[in-house]
Design brief:
single chain; 725 residues; mainly beta; 9-stranded mixed beta sheet; 8-stranded mixed beta sheet; 10% helix; 35% strand
Length: 725
């Protein structure tokens, strides 16, 4: 057949089949269609195309007559074709042999025809078509003169389609509250009005063979707030109900375009709907921040960074509070502002290819899955949060959308906030008093299920002035190692050498066991006149660099610190280097070029044998006779130290005591002796009321009597009670 550009043809063809009765030899559809639709895209020689639509009756009677009323996108019939006032097409009367055109009135034309198949072709312009059949109505007159009607939109698989974006449920168990996100797909026939006007959907019941045993009623998404989202639970219409054993529910849908075209094929997912699931609410500790005079600066308070280790002197932009016995603490001030953020298990995670890991870390990708307490995704959605503060409903916030008071089954009152945007998951408290404050949140899902409350207690501790502090806090940052830092031996050593003039020192272990760490909070630090912090293990970094912020807060309020470490001190100071104001103001180190580790290996450069006291201080000798470390005894020296260059200009307390070049065991070269003998291994630094003493060697490796005398002098000096003036 030849096609001519821009010629629109409308033809009808006789299609002879039996009518009115079904053929018992053919399988029957659950819901047979009375009209059948087909379409095709036919290329033309000029690069354009013809779009062909075919509409035919399913099983028509040979004794019936038909009248067709097409509706088109442009509301115009194809050129050359005519219809009566009701829009029904004219056909040539049976037996008429005249050449009168159908545009002229007369007995030669009628709306009735025995032909049960209608075909329409539309040519494109610039790759698009401007008209097509969108709706068809057919009158059917039987041989007794009875007339019935069939009407249907044109159904297409080529012009428009759809997909179910979420959730991916096939065969999975889920709760009885689901959200289906739907999306139209535009095909390769281009015409205006293809975007979705609405989606039609229904719920069907399938047996264990995935066969439909009950088909639901069709509903339109046009009445939904978002036509591309369908929310279903036990109270919606249709209702999502719990499946019986060996039964599934099927969600079936199709799209209706703005031009009225319906998707011919249907999309579906099936699942097992079960009761009993509920979400897990939580607070995100990574984003809980306190901002105030004694805790954080109010400058740039919104610039809380993900991985910022410590604040600069100007901005104090840290984000975290301090964990003390599973309770968050901060130092109180009248201008304190508390930033809280909450959510639910499954909201955040990491996706690797086809694998998903839920992390509950708000810095990761937002996934918005909903997990129960067992970590199972039951494919629901969080619709709201219930909030309480100090046992009463949360205070109102102007950013909350449609908040309302609700009562839980236990009689408690809560403020319910709709989960429509990020504002429903964040609040800033101000004008808080000192003391412990309790915050609670529950997550509410599409089922209406309410999670158990997540409870957060935050203790705002009154600041303690330096003149009200007492005693010494002994922070043990040495990871236990039988060769390098045996716990019992090291503990006994420091119990013996820390002076007790200011009371019995209080021990704090940074190693909580099982790979966990204890935080040394400034709320703890501020109770003590001084802190003695030691890490004697030369193969473990300790957590000093993780506590820079806490030390900044403590030292900025007149605190005192005595620090003993090893070669790992150089690593910690290097971690501080990006925050040069902190390293300089609190430790007196202006550049990383001012310090270095003698060796990163405990076996190489074992040349350190004592700290040579300066300005009248006694020497502190390496314990070579009863060393607990075999390498120290074998090498007759220690390599695991951090030394400081003379040009740093610090108040040096001890110089590097280097093994002589004629030592019997593992001597240095003359060049090495001269290099290291010029270095220092301990110093004192004072700044704005705080005093810091740094030992770049682990004191537990030294002679106990020397260390006891040295620390008595040091603490007496910085605490102003005896010792070196």
């Amino acid at each position: 057949m030849r096609y001519y550009g821009h010629v629109i043809m409308l033809c009808v063809a006789f299609f002879v089949v039996s009518c009115g009765t079904h053929n018992p030899m053919q399988p029957q559809n659950d819901s047979p269609d009375q009209l059948l639709f087909t379409e095709d895209k036919l290329p033309l020689e000029n690069g354009q195309f013809l779009y062909k639509q075919v509409i035919e009756l399913n099983n028509p009677s040979p004794h019936c007559l038909f009248a067709y009323r097409p509706e088109t996108y442009s509301s115009q019939l194809p050129v050359g074709y005519f219809a009566d006032e009701g829009g029904y097409l004219y056909f040539r009367s049976s037996g008429d042999n005249s050449n009168l055109p159908l545009s002229e009135p007369g007995a030669h034309r009628t709306i009735w025809t025995s032909q049960s198949r209608l075909s329409a072709e539309f040519s494109s312009t610039d790759g698009k078509i401007n008209n097509l059949v969108t709706q068809i109505t057919v009158q059917i007159k039987d041989d007794r003169g009875k007339i019935s009607f069939i009407s249907s939109p044109f159904k297409s698989n080529r012009i428009v389609g759809s997909r179910i974006v979420s959730p991916n449920l096939n065969g999975e168990e889920c709760g009885i509250g689901l959200e289906f996100v739907l999306q139209e797909i535009i095909g390769d026939i281009f015409v205006e009005g293809l975007y979705a006007h609405h989606f039609m959907y229904r719920l069907n019941i399938l047996n264990y063979k995935k066969q439909a045993v009950q088909r639901g009623t069709w509903y339109s998404s046009i009445d939904s707030p978002d036509i591309r989202k369908v929310l279903l639970n036990s109270t919606t219409t249709p209702a999502l109900i719990t499946n019986e054993p060996n039964q599934f529910t099927q969600f079936e849908c199709y799209v209706v375009s703005r031009s009225g075209i319906e998707e011919a094929s249907h999309r579906s997912v099936f699942f097992r709907a079960l009761a009993g699931y509920k979400p897990v609410a939580l607070f995100y500790p990574q984003t809980i921040a306190g901002l105030g005079q004694h805790h954080y600066s109010l400058t740039d308070e919104d610039q809380m960074s993900v991985y910022e280790l410590i604040p600069s002197a100007s901005y104090h932009k840290n984000r975290k509070l301090f964990n003390v016995n599973n309770q968050l603490e901060a130092i109180y001030s009248a201008d304190f502002k508390l930033h809280l953020r909450w959510g639910y298990s499954g909201q955040y995670g990491i996706v690797y290819s086809t694998n998903t890991t839920y992390t509950n870390n708000p810095w990761d990708r937002e996934l918005n899955s909903v997990l129960n307490s067992s970590g199972m995704n039951y494919h629901s959605k969080i619709t709201a949060f219930d909030l309480r503060f100090e046992g009463s409903p949360f205070p109102l916030n102007s950013s909350f959308i449609e908040p309302q008071l609700v009562t839980h089954a236990d009689g408690s009152s809560w403020l319910r906030v709709r989960n429509l945007n990020d504002s429903a998951r964040h609040y800033v408290f101000s004008n808080l008093s000192s003391g412990i404050h309790q915050f609670q949140v529950c997550a509410v899902d599409l089922q209406g299920a309410i999670s158990d409350p997540a409870t957060l207690n935050i203790n705002l501790v009154l600041p303690k002035p330096a003149n009200q502090r007492s005693g010494i806090l002994l922070v043990d940052d040495s990871a236990n190692n039988n060769n390098y830092s045996p716990e019992a031996t090291v503990n006994n050593f420091y119990n013996a050498v820390i002076p007790t003039n200011w009371g019995t020192p209080v021990r704090f272990e940074t190693d909580a066991g099982n790979g966990n760490l204890n935080e040394v909070s400034p709320t703890i630090m501020q109770n003590y006149k001084a802190i003695f912090w030691h890490n004697d293990n030369p193969i473990a970094n300790g957590v000093l660099s993780m506590h820079a912020d806490a030390l900044e807060l403590y030292l900025s309020e007149g605190g005192n610190l005595v620090l003993s470490s090893s070669n790992k001190l150089a690593d910690s100071f290097s971690c501080f280097a990006p925050y040069q104001d902190f390293l300089s103001n609190r430790f007196g180190i202006a550049s990383t070029a001012q310090f270095a580790a003698l060796s990163q290996s405990v076996a190489t450069n074992a040349f350190f044998i004592n700290g040579i006291g300066q300005n009248g201080l006694s020497n502190i000798a390496l314990n070579l006779n009863t060393a607990f470390n075999n390498l120290v005894a074998l090498r007759q020296g220690l390599s695991a130290i951090t030394y400081f260059n003379p040009d740093a200009g610090l108040n040096y307390l001890h110089k590097f005591g280097c093994k002589p070049v004629d030592a019997a065991v593992y001597p240095p070269t003359q060049a090495q002796y001269e290099l290291y003998s010029d270095k220092y291994v301990a110093y004192k630094y004072s700044h704005a009321g705080s005093q810091v003493v740094v030992f770049g060697f682990p004191l537990s490796y030294m002679v106990q009597a020397d260390v006891a005398a040295g620390l008595q002098s040091v603490f007496g000096d910085i605490l102003g009670e005896g010792g070196r003036p």
